[in-house]
Design brief:
Order of helices and strands: EEEHEEHEHHHHEHEHEEHH
Strand order of the largest sheet: 6-7-8-3-9-10
Radius of gyration: 18 Å
Shape: globular
Number of strands: 10
Helix content: 25-40%
Strand content: 25-35%
Number of helices: 10
Oligomer: single chain
Distance between the termini: 32 Å
């Protein structure tokens, strides 16, 4: 794979949390304009990888390159200003603020641009109807809509999302798949952690599988979908049996 294809690259990244060594030499590429799925069993190191990318935890060793620029030493706000948005598993919304206020906080110094706002509403129409509602009173699916809406209310090159469909109804999951794929069509690059393999195989162009703090498999998503033995070995499941 040519270096120019990678918007984000991790090279031999090691991350410790306190006295615990969590990442043990992670090598990962996220290619421009594509959806990369980061999969693995619970505790494999997926969330730690995302938090290390965003500077919330700092790598003890290794390099993280975004658009060819080293970012492993940068603070989280500086990484965000380069065009990287992060939606954590807990969504990180402000429950006492309205939908409008949450989006306003995520906007740039010029405030909410109408064109960008219409883009958010096109992906998540419910946010328009809940415009003045307190975010804490939204349903789980609506809170996830707001979390992703905040991430894209300003132009972003890379959207990093930790388990976007966790706990959502099947109908809501399909809505999120469509919304995220629409962002891809607009040339937003996506890196997603996802536990639902059916969702992963619907969305992913590329896949990386983690185990015990390392990437143990990389390749096209469809190659993993077509190999049930590999699914079982890497993830303990097969597409035929996965929910």
């Amino acid at each position: 794979m040519a270096d120019g294809d990678a918007l984000l690259r991790l090279e031999d990244v090691h991350t410790d949390i306190g006295r615990y060594r969590i990442l043990h030499g992670v090598d990962l590429e996220v290619r421009r304009g594509r959806v990369t799925m980061l999969l693995g069993r619970n505790g494999a190191g997926k969330t730690t990888t995302l938090r290390t990318i965003m500077g919330l935890w700092h790598a003890r060793q290794g390099r993280i390159l975004f658009a060819g620029r080293p970012i492993e030493g940068l603070a989280t706000p500086d990484i965000a200003r380069l065009g990287v948005a992060y939606v954590p598993e807990n969504m990180g919304i402000f429950g006492k603020l309205t939908v409008r206020e949450n989006l306003l906080l995520a906007s740039g110094p010029k405030g909410l641009a109408q064109e960008r706002l219409e883009r958010v509403f096109a992906c998540f129409p419910a946010l328009k109807t809940k415009w003045d509602a307190a975010a804490g009173l939204l349903s789980g699916g609506q809170k996830q809509m707001l979390a992703i809406g905040r991430a894209i209310v300003e132009p972003r090159q890379l959207l990093v999302v930790d388990e976007p469909t966790k706990g959502l109804s099947p109908a809501m999951v399909e809505h999120f798949i469509a919304a995220l794929l629409a962002l891809k069509e607009e040339q937003t690059t996506l890196l997603l952690v996802e536990q639902n393999f059916r969702v992963a195989q619907q969305m992913g162009d590329d896949v990386a599988v983690m185990d015990q703090g390392r990437i143990v498999h990389r390749g096209p998503m469809q190659a993993l979908v077509g190999d049930e033995e590999l699914q079982q070995r890497l993830l303990g499941l097969s597409l035929g049996a996965a929910g």
